[in-house]
Write a structure and sequence with these properties.
heterodimer, A: mainly alpha, two-stranded antiparallel ribbon, 4% strand, globular, B: two-stranded antiparallel sheet, 20 helices, 2 strands
């Protein structure tokens, strides 16, 4: 299939959005859903065709003589010219990670489109209010996300960053009558906007020095792209330093902050758990599989630059490793299953971030098995597998929530008997994320750990520990939902597996989660396009499986059957438990800063100052004018005697003054 | 008369003819008034389209002269005052903007009551002034049209306004007249130094060409003219007419005022203050740059706590118009192009905002967001329109605000010194604050539960309201999706100005 079909992959969701948004409102609800699914199916088929052609084809310009897979620019027209050289283009570029992302996005999006046909209906099968709007927004999101991954330049990524941000805002706030949803959507948008501000400043610094936004130089102006020769791009900033760091380090750090906002890295993670107020399929698509990895994707995209600027890379490494642990710790105690999954997502994305960052030391890539950039490959591989099993877990959670009408796990328990397919699918998801072979997560996580150990023993042990926690908290959730004790039926009907539209995606994703580990990612998705020779490191693999099993065993001991052990453990360290449950009070901190400091401390005084001082000054001018004119109008009294009197005095004064001039 | 061969003059003649037509309408019955008003607005939009065509054709044919469609008619020979017409890319897009806003404004005031005929009379007089200002390049003519645009404001707010309208009308008029007093001093000063060979002139091109204003005079005249226009451009600390004025003004007047009239300020700043006095602009630019930098952040923060919809948008205008002047003072083509894009963008989206607010107010009779909620359920069309306007305002790609702001930021970043860097980054922060106040309003006004049960009976937009808002939304989206079309028209117009600035250092 010609690679130019990528244009259709991007265009169809956009047309779908416009069509459903403008015309769909007047249409039968179910029909819009079916149309949305058909559109998405076509997109998915095309995307697979394009991606497979890219990976396995040998067409013109795709693979160099040395077997290195090249980036192919399909389409790149000018969109906005800032100056002669600085031009924003809207293009399509395929390289290994872009092609991989096409598959990830369309697969998950397709599953979510299908699943939502069932999920967005009540128990009688009637579509919910706003069904058309929902599908329109899904299409908008899919378009924006696809546009983001195929971007040919940094500014295009920024544009689509904003677009996915707004789609996320619209979908989180889908139930716009609920105050919690409004609040969550607002929070998500503003936090990511704050991060995007840094991203923007980063782009401004970067483009000021390099005079380009493009990743690869275009034939049009002959200016080298950012990644054509990373060394010279970094060198363009020269010796400019600010507060001890080079301009390039600042730029790349700021760009990373932009990515950290979208990817929910500490301390910009606070929006993601709240974003769970959106419909669950949306959480699966946007807040688990695709949009939240945009930050990882961004860093991966600029990876050749980050490798050289080690300072920025170190920041990523520390932030990633800390976030992975922090989120995992919180996930261990959450009672809302979607929030627990959200923290699990944060932790896993931090894994990917760390994995990218551990690929290099001292401005050079670390060599493993004679190849370079294992961490990069592992990160992208984990991104791929994680998208599949995390989407699966969320869709299972959606099915459960749909069945029991609650997010809290104390309303669930013992569902295995009622929802066997869902239970089985969830188990596969848990095994995959815990890293048990042969499930998908094992393969990708193992390589991340290898890369981490190669960077330093400390990094490796830390990440292994987090991997163990992952296994524990996932199985904690699993056991609490499906076992623990007999289910008490809370609603008028018994929970059961959901209709086929919802079950089929679970089965498909579960299958992918089993087999995805065997995708030869090392040959396909590498930082320079050249195949990477990896081999299983038995020490790391064995120990990580062992740690995962310990985590699972512990979860089994604590949560399989109802017992008082969890309660006793929570009581024994009440303070820590509460702190973790309240997410270490980060939300309270943000609340304090936004409400008390910014709103009460800055906005209100400024508004008061404006009315009282500035406006007061102009009002005073008017008042003074008024008073003075009232005062002097007495001079115009109309009385002749008065005028003659003043005239006489004036004449005398004039005479006196003249006389003085004459005399002296 | 040869002047009638110049298409530009029709931008003044058409509103005047509409005025005449309106005057002939009977006082009773609104039908004829509407017909005449719509006809006038439609012809103006058509003319604007034709002007773009003529402009592109001329530029395409290789006509690189600074001003196109030039003609001169002597008005008063002893003082060498002429009616000098001419347009460059910036004036063309400003004329197009004005035409569309007049068009949308007519439909937004469809049910104007009382005295519809008189309302439209003043409305079209104001439009005459606006168009006249943009087509002329002679200081005297520009100033005259500027005053023609300002004065009707007093009556439009005083008679058809709401709330504390007498105070607001008086305040707005006095502050703007104060500004024009400065301006007049500036213009007279410029006139008397316009040439060294004794042939004084009011023609901007000739003054710029002569470059005869002594430097020490420039240092006096530049602040006078810049502040004169800056008042209209809502520059801190001369912006306080804006919240009160907008709050009391009727819908169409708010639209026209924020949409077009405030643009006269930005336009005048670079066309007269900076272009004619580049030396002083280089010397004193930093003072005004600081003020406009303050405007941007200050307006945005103030908007965060307002509860009246019109106050929110008035302060948001202070912030956005601050961005226009800020960009103009960056003295490079990229930022100045961004300034014009921002004028277009702000004009359209603020007009859209005020139109929607007017429509909501017309139904609920309140503009306080605390008394409203859940409007999205009751009036989905207006709700969606408001969300789109909000997204344009906070800079969503694909809508006009993003393009304008990004061009400004990239242009501003071309200055590498610390002073410009700090101000630029402060200005960039406004994108977050804007998001805060926009989402706050959207959340309170449109989403959530219905606050007032009486509101459930309200109806959604009527056809003329839909037409008015849809026109503006489409314009906003076109600029946002195809910015290069506008950039190509605009950017060359700044070359002479940037050149003059560069030569005057």
């Amino acid at each position: 299939m010609p690679l130019s079909y990528t244009i259709a992959v991007i265009a169809i969701p956009l047309l779908m959005f416009l069509f459903l948004g403008l015309v769909g409102v007047k249409m039968e609800k179910k029909l819009t859903g079916i149309l949305g699914c058909i559109g998405m199916l076509v997109t998915t088929v095309l995307a697979y065709g394009v991606a497979l052609t890219y990976f396995f084809g040998t067409g013109e310009g795709q693979v160099s003589a040395e077997g290195v897979r090249q980036a192919v620019t399909v389409f790149n027209p000018d969109w906005l010219s800032f100056s002669k050289t600085l031009v924003v283009r809207m293009g399509i570029m395929l390289d290994p990670i872009a092609a991989m992302m096409l598959i990830v996005i369309t697969t998950v999006s397709m599953m979510v489109h299908l699943y939502s046909l069932g999920y967005m209906c009540d128990h009688h099968g009637h579509a919910e209010k706003g069904f058309q709007r929902y599908y329109a927004f899904l299409a908008l999101f899919t378009f924006s996300m696809l546009g983001l991954v195929v971007a040919t330049n940094l500014f295009q990524i920024f544009i689509f960053f904003e677009m996915v941000g707004v789609s996320s805002y619209l979908l989180i706030g889908f139930y716009y009558e609920s105050p919690a949803a409004i609040h969550a959507s607002k929070k998500a948008f503003i936090v990511t906007r704050l991060a995007d501000l840094f991203f923007l400043v980063g782009i401004l610094i970067l483009s000021y020095y390099t005079q380009t936004f493009d990743f690869f130089g275009s034939d049009v102006n002959g200016i080298a792209g950012l990644l054509d020769n990373p060394q010279s791009s970094v060198a363009k900033a020269g010796a400019t330093t600010f507060m001890g760091c080079s301009a390039m380090a600042w730029a790349l750090t700021f760009i990373f902050i932009g990515g950290a906002g979208k990817s929910a890295m500490y301390p910009l993670h606070i929006w993601l758990p709240d974003a769970m107020e959106g419909p669950t399929p949306v959480s699966a698509l946007i807040h688990a599989a695709t949009m939240v990895v945009a930050g990882v994707y961004l860093v991966a995209r600029l990876f050749p630059l980050y490798v050289i600027v080690q300072g920025a890379m170190d920041i990523i490494c520390v932030v990633g490793a800390f976030t992975a642990f922090y989120a995992a710790a919180i996930a261990c105690v959450q009672s809302d299953i979607k929030r627990a999954l959200a923290f699990s997502t944060i932790s896993q994305i931090a894994f990917m971030m760390t994995s990218l960052a551990v690929s290099s030391a001292d401005g050079k890539l670390i060599e493993i098995h004679g190849g370079y950039g294992l961490g990069y490959m592992a990160s992208m591989f984990h991104l791929f597998t994680h998208a599949m099993f995390k989407a699966l877990l969320f869709l299972c959670a959606g099915a459960i929530i749909h069945a029991v009408h609650s997010n809290e796990n104390d309303k669930m328990h013992g569902l295995h008997k009622y929802m066997p397919i869902t239970s089985f699918a969830f188990l596969i998801g848990c095994l995959a994320i815990a890293g048990i072979p042969p499930f998908a997560g094992f393969w990708s996580k193992d390589e991340i750990l290898v890369a981490a150990y190669e960077k330093g023993l400390g990094w490796g042990i830390w990440m292994s520990m987090v991997a163990g926690m992952t296994a524990f908290y996932m199985f904690r959730i699993y056991f609490l939902i499906f076992h623990w004790k007999k289910h008490e039926v809370h609603t008028e009907h018994e929970p059961s597996d959901q209709p086929w539209t919802m079950t089929l995606p679970l089965i498909i994703l579960a299958t992918i989660s089993i087999v995805a580990g065997f995708v030869p990612a090392a040959n396909l998705v590498t930082w320079d396009g050249a195949p990477l020779h990896t081999q299983l490191n038995w020490t790391v693999a064995g120990s990580s499986v062992l740690i995962a099993c310990v985590g699972i065993g512990l979860a089994y001991k604590m949560y399989y059957k109802e017992n008082t052990l969890p309660q006793r453990m929570a009581d024994s360290c009440r303070g820590l438990w509460t702190a973790a449950y309240r997410r270490f009070y980060m939300d309270e901190l943000y609340q304090f800063i936004t409400h008390k400091v910014i709103f009460q401390g800055i906005c209100k005084p400024i508004a008061k100052f404006d009315r009282a001082v500035i406006d007061g000054f102009f009002n005073m001018l008017a008042e003074v004018t008024n008073t003075v004119s009232f005062g002097i109008r007495k001079l115009q009294s109309g009385s002749i005697q008065g005028y003659v009197y003043v005239y006489f005095i004036g004449a005398l004064l004039l005479a006196a003054v003249t006389a003085m001039f004459v005399i002296f | 008369m040869e002047i009638f061969n110049n298409p530009l003059i029709y931008f003044v003649i058409v509103p005047l003819l509409t005025l005449l037509g309106l005057a002939l309408c009977s006082n009773k019955g609104i039908g004829a008034v509407r017909a005449v008003a719509v006809a006038g607005a439609t012809v103006l939009v058509g003319l604007a389209g034709w002007l773009v065509y003529l402009f592109l054709q001329a530029r395409g044919a290789g006509d690189t002269s600074e001003m196109l469609l030039r003609s001169d008619v002597v008005w008063y020979a002893p003082l060498n005052i002429k009616l000098a017409l001419g347009v460059d890319g910036v004036s063309v897009v400003m004329i197009v903007l004005s035409a569309f806003i007049v068009f949308a404004g007519v439909f937004a005031s469809w049910k104007m009551n009382p005295l519809p005929k008189q309302f439209f009379l003043w409305f079209y007089l104001l439009s005459t002034g606006v168009f006249g200002f943009f087509i002329s390049i002679d200081l005297f003519t520009m100033f005259m049209f500027y005053e023609v645009a300002l004065i009707p404001m007093y009556l439009l707010i005083g008679v058809w306004g709401s709330g504390n309208k007498n105070y607001s009308a008086m305040k707005l008029t006095l502050m703007l007249m104060g500004g024009s007093a400065f301006l007049m001093l500036g213009i007279i000063g410029i006139y008397f130094h316009s040439s060294t060979d004794g042939q004084l002139t009011m023609n901007i091109l000739e003054i710029a060409h002569n470059d005869a204003i002594p430097h020490d005079w420039q240092l006096w005249l530049f602040p006078l003219t810049f502040i004169g226009f800056g008042v209209l451009g809502a520059m801190f600390p001369f912006h306080t007419w804006s919240p009160d004025g907008h709050a009391s003004a009727p819908t169409a007047v708010s639209m026209l005022h924020a949409g077009v009239l405030m643009k006269l300020g930005g336009y005048g700043c670079f066309r007269i203050a900076i272009y004619l006095m580049p030396f002083a602009a280089n010397e004193l630019g930093w003072i005004f740059l600081t003020l406009t930098g303050i405007s941007i952040v200050y307006g945005a923060f103030s908007a965060c706590v307002q509860t009246d919809l019109k106050y929110i948008n008035a302060y948001s205008s202070v912030s956005h118009c601050g961005m226009v002047l800020f960009a103009i003072l960056m003295f490079n083509t990229t930022a100045m192009t961004g300034a014009v894009l921002q004028m277009l963008s702000h004009g359209l989206m603020t007009a859209l905002f005020f139109a929607l607010i007017g429509m909501i107010y017309g139904r609920t009779h309140t503009r306080d967001i605390r008394d409203m909620g859940g409007m999205m359920q009751i009036m989905p069309y207006l709700g969606v329109g408001y969300v789109i306007a909000g997204l344009a305002s906070l800079g969503l790609p694909g809508l006009s605000g993003f393009v304008a702001e990004m061009t400004i930021f990239v242009g501003s970043y071309e200055h590498a010194d610390v002073f410009h860097r700090v101000l630029t980054i402060a200005a960039t922060c406004s994108i977050v604050i804007t998001a805060v106040y926009i989402l706050r309003v959207v959340g309170k006004l449109l989403f959530g539960a219905v606050q007032n049960e009486h509101h459930r009976e309200l109806t959604d937009a009527t056809w003329e309201e839909r037409l008015s808002t849809a026109t503006l939304i489409v314009c906003v989206a076109i600029i946002g999706c195809f910015p290069n079309f506008f950039v190509n028209i605009i950017s060359d117009s700044f070359l002479p100005i940037v050149k003059a600035l560069g030569a005057a250092i």
